[in-house]
C-alpha cells in the first residue's frame, strides 16, 4: 500500500494500492489509465476512501526561461511547487503571477482548476499546456483556447476521462510591473514592485487561511456561486452588506465565505472537523478526522446556505473514492 497522507493537505490517513513518483514521460509509458489517478500535492483534493489503484504523483521539475522582447516564456514542469516558482521568477524580475502567491499546490494542478486569487486567474497567463495522454501514450499540446479556462474549471477538469497527465505549463510573463490591485486589501496600498505585491498577498492570506502544514485543509472548499443578476439584486435588497461582483450583463458572483458566515456556519466544530475561525469557506481537520466527517460537515453547510439563501453551493475540491474521481452528488 502507498501512503497518501503526504499527498492530501487535509492530512487524511488514506492509502492507494500503489504509488509512483513521476519525474519524466518515460515513467508513464506503461501506466494503465483505467486504474490510476493523477495527483500533485493534493491541495484541492478530498479522499473519501482508500484508492484501489495507482496514484501517480507529479514530480516533474524541469524549468526553462527564454526572453522575447518584454515577455518571458516560462516552461515549468508540472511537479514544481507553484509558490516556489513564483518567488523564483519575481527574484529574477519576471512579473505576473504575484497575486497567486502562497496558494499551495503544483504547477500541473493549477490549470486544472484554473486557480485564481486577488483578481488574477492563472489561465490568463498560460500560453499552452503540454500533457501525456495515458490512454494513447502520446504527447498532446493544448493552446490557451483549447484549455477552455473558466471560473475554477478547464478542459482538464471537464474531461477527467481523458486521463491527461500535465507534464509542462508554459507561461507568457513580463518584465514590466502592471499590478492588478482591485481586490480589498490590495487597493489600499501603493506598490513599488511585484515583490511588494507578493508580500502583501501572503500577509492577507496568512491572516485569513490556516497553514495546511499545521492544520489540515484544502483551502476554499466551495466555489463562489454565480447567480442571475436579478436574483442577486433581490438578495442585496435584503442584505445590504452582501458582497457581489458583476460577471457579465446577466450574472453576478457572490462571496461563498460571506454566505456561509451569514448562515451561521463560521467557526463551527463538529467532532474532529470544523470551519476556520477567520474564513468560513475553509473546512479544517482539527485532529484525526475521517473523510466522512468532512463530507458530513460540508453537506450540512450546503443545506444551511440553501435554506437561508436558496443557493446551491458547489465544491471547489475534487472528490476521490475507492475507484477514482466521483461526483459530489453521489455522496
In words, what does this structure look like?
- This protein has 331 residues and is α+β, with helices and mostly antiparallel strands.
- The protein has three domains: 2-58, Uridine Diphospho-n-acetylenolpyruvylglucosamine Reductase, domain 2 (2-Layer Sandwich), CATH 3.30.43; 63-204, Uridine Diphospho-n-acetylenolpyruvylglucosamine Reductase, domain 3; 222-314, Uridine Diphospho-n-acetylenolpyruvylglucosamine Reductase, domain 1, CATH 3.90.78.10.
- It is 21% helix and 31% strand.
- The protein is built from seven helices and 21 strands.
- The chain has helices at residues 82-91, 110-113, 155-158, 194-208, 229-238, 256-262, 291-309; strands spanning 2-3, 15-22, 36-39, 45-47, 51-58, 63-68, 71-77, 116-117, 120-121, 126-133, 138-143, 164-174, 216-220, 226-228, 244-246, 251-254, 269-270, 273-276, 279-285, 318-321, 324-326.
- It starts with a strand and ends in a 5-residue tail after the last strand.
- The model has no long low-confidence stretch (mean pLDDT 96).
Give the CATH class of the largest domain. Alpha Beta
Helix content: 10-25%
What does the main sheet amount to?
5 strands, antiparallel
Low-confidence stretches: none
Gyration radius (Cα, Å) is 20 Å
Major sheet strand order: 6-7-12-10-11
Kindly state the number of beta strands. 21
Shape: globular
- The CA-CA distance between the termini, in Å, is 25 Å
What string gives the helices and strands in order? Answer: EEEEEEEHHEEEEHEHEEHEEHEEEHEE
Q: Helix count, per DSSP?
A: 7
Amino acid at each position: 500500500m502507498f501512503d497518501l497522507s503526504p499527498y492530501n493537505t487535509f492530512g487524511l490517513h488514506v492509502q492507494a494500492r500503489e504509488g509512483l513518483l513521476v519525474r519524466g514521460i518515460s515513467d508513464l509509458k506503461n501506466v494503465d489509465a483505467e486504474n490510476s489517478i493523477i495527483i500533485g500535492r493534493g491541495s484541492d483534493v478530498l479522499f473519501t476512501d482508500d484508492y484501489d489503484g495507482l496514484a501517480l504523483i507529479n514530480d516533474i521539475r524541469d524549468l526553462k526561461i527564454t526572453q522575447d522582447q518584454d515577455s518571458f516564456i516560462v516552461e515549468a514542469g508540472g511537479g514544481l511547487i507553484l509558490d516556489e516558482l513564483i518567488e523564483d521568477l519575481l527574484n529574477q524580475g519576471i512579473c505576473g503571477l504575484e497575486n497567486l502567491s502562497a496558494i499551495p499546490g503544483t504547477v500541473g494542478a493549477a490549470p486544472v482548476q484554473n486557480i485564481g486569487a486577488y483578481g488574477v486567474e492563472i489561465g490568463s497567463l498560460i500560453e499552452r499546456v503540454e500533457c501525456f495522454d495515458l490512454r494513447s501514450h502520446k504527447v498532446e499540446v493544448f493552446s490557451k483556447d483549447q484549455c477552455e479556462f473558466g471560473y475554477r474549471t478547464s478542459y482538464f477538469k471537464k474531461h477527467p476521462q481523458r486521463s491527461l497527465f500535465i507534464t509542462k505549463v508554459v507561461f507568457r510573463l513580463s518584465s514590466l510591473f502592471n499590478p492588478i490591485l482591485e481586490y480589498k486589501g490590495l487597493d489600499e496600498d501603493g506598490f513599488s514592485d511585484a515583490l511588494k505585491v507578493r508580500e502583501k498577498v501572503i500577509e492577507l492570506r496568512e491572516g485569513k487561511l490556516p497553514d495546511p502544514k499545521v492544520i489540515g485543509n484544502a483551502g476554499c472548499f466551495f466555489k463562489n456561486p454565480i447567480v442571475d443578476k436579478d436574483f442577486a439584486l433581490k438578495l442585496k435588497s435584503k442584505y445590504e452588506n452582501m458582497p457581489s461582483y458583476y460577471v457579465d450583463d446577466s450574472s453576478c458572483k457572490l462571496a461563498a465565505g460571506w454566505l456561509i458566515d451569514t448562515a451561521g456556519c463560521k467557526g463551527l466544530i463538529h467532532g474532529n472537523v470544523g470551519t476556520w475561525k477567520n474564513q468560513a469557506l475553509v473546512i479544517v481537520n482539527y485532529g484525526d478526522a475521517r473523510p466522512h466527517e468532512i463530507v458530513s460537515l460540508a453537506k450540512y453547510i450546503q443545506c444551511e446556505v440553501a435554506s437561508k439563501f436558496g443557493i446551491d453551493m458547489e465544491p471547489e475540491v475534487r472528490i476521490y473514492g475507492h475507484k477514482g474521481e466521483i461526483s459530489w452528488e453521489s455522496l
